[in-house]
Amino acid sequence: MKPRIAVLHGPNLNLLGTREPAVYGSTTLARIDQDLRDLAEQLGVQVDCMQSNHEGALVDRVQAMAQDGTRFVLLNPAAYTHTSVALRDALAAVALPFVEVHLSNVYRREAFRRTSYFSDLAEAVISGCGALGYSLALRFAADRLLTKAQN
Ligand code: CA2
C-alpha cells in the first residue's frame, strides 16, 4: 500500500492559468494536479488532490484525513493563509505533518500576506517557486514517508 498524501488548494486557485499569470504563473490547476500524480507514481506514493472555495469544505476534508489513511498534506490555503483559524485548528486536530505551499513569494507582496496561520505548524514552507513548489513539496513529503530512518 503506497503512503497517501493529500493535496489541498484553497479559494480561487481554480482560476490558475486563466488570470494574473504575472503573479501566479500560466500553469493550470489541472496541470499541477496531473504533474503531482505523475511524480507520485515515480516516487512510490499516492496523491489525492482537492480544491475548494469554501472554508468549511476544506475543514471537512482535513477532518476526514484522520480516518482515510492520509499520512502527509501539501497545503496551499490561498487567502485562508491569512485569515483561517478554523482551518488551522483542523490541521492541528488531525496532527498530520504538512508543507505550506505558495506559488508567489508572499514576503515580496502586501504586508498582510506575511502573516500565516499555518507556518508555525508546518514542517516546511515553500513560497515563490511557482508550480514547481508543489513538486518540491511532494519530493519532501515522499522522502519523509519513505526514508525509514526518519519514520
Ligand atoms: O501565492 C500563493 O499561492 C497564495 O497562496 C495565493 C493566494 C493568495 O491570497 C496568497 O496570499 C498567496 C491567492 C490565490 C488566488 O489565485 C488566483 C489564481 C489565478 C488568478 C487569480 C487568483
| Multimer state | single chain
Mean pLDDT over the residues: 96
Low-confidence segments, ≥5 residues, pLDDT <50? none
Distance between the first and last residues' Cα: 16 Å
Query: What summary fits the major beta sheet?
Result: 5 strands, parallel
The strand count comes to 5
Radius of gyration (Å) = 14 Å
Number of helices: 5
**Order of adjacent strands in the largest pleated sheet:** 2-1-3-4-5
How would the global form be characterised? globular
What structural class do helix, strand and pairing data support?
A: alpha/beta
Bound molecules: ligand CA2
SSE ordering: EHHEHEHEEH
User: DSSP strand (E) fraction?
Assistant: 15-25%
Range of helix content: 25-40%
Task: List strands and helices in order, with pairings.
Blueprint: E1 4-9, H1 21-24, H2 29-43, E2 46-51, H3 55-64, E3 70-76, H4 85-94, E4 98-102, E5 124-127, H5 132-146
Parallel strand pairs: 1-2, 1-3, 3-4, 4-5
Helix pairs in contact: 2-5, 3-4
Bound molecules: ligand CA2.
